[in-house]
Amino acid sequence: MAEPNGEHSADEAVRMITYEDLANLLLDQAEEVGLEPLDVSHLVEWPAGRRTFTMYCVPEDWDPPFDIVAELRFSYEAMDVALSHYGQEELCAMYHDPGVPCPHLGIPPDLTIVLEVKYQFQPPDVYSVPEVTGELRRLFRQHIPHDNQPEMKFEVSSLPDASLQVHQAYAYYWWELREELFEEEPDFTDVFREIHAVIDAIKASGLIEGHPREDEPFRG
Length: 220
Prior knowledge:
Elements: H1 19-32, E1 35-45, E2 50-59, E3 68-76, H2 78-92, E4 113-121, H3 129-143, E5 151-158, E6 164-177, H4 189-205
Antiparallel strand pairs: 1-2, 2-3, 3-4, 4-6, 5-6
Helix pairs in contact: 3-4
C-alpha cells in the first residue's frame, strides 16, 4: 500500500514517471552497467490502451550468436498512462470544480507496476533437465543475494515418434515498482548489475551450449 509522502503538501499533486521516461531510463541504465540492448519493442493494445515495453540484452562484450539473453518487460494500463501524463489534478478536474480542495493530492496513488526479468537460454536435452535445474539453482543463489529467486520453466513436447524435446527454457522473476514510480529518477542499476552477473555465470558454467533457434528474436 502506498503511504503519504512527507515531502508533498496536501494540495500538491504527486507526479508519476511516464511510460516513455521509464523505458528510456531502463535502456540508459542497462548500458551504464555494460549491457547491450539488442531488441526493443513498444506494443500498444487497442482499444484498452495498454502499453508494453520489452527489451532483450546481453553483456556488451559478447559476440553473436547469443544462446543466453535477458528479457525485461513492463506494462502501463490506460489509467497509468493518463495519470503519468496529466497528473492527479487534471483527472480530478473531471469530477469537480478546480477550486475544490482534494485531500488525496499529497498522497501517491496506490499503484504497482511489475518489472519482469526473464533469462532465456538454449533448451537442454530433456534428460539433462534435472542436472541443469540443480546447477542453475546453485548459480542463482550465488549471484542473487536476496529472497526473490527465479522460477524455472522447461516446456516439453512429445514428438510424433514418441520422443520428448524441450523447445523452450527460461528462468524468471519480477520486481514490484511502487515508490520508484514517484521518484524523479529511480535507480535500477543494481537490478542490471545482478542481470549481468547472472547471465555471465550461466555462460561460464558451460551448462548452456549450442546455438539459438532460428526463430528467436534476439539473434545477433
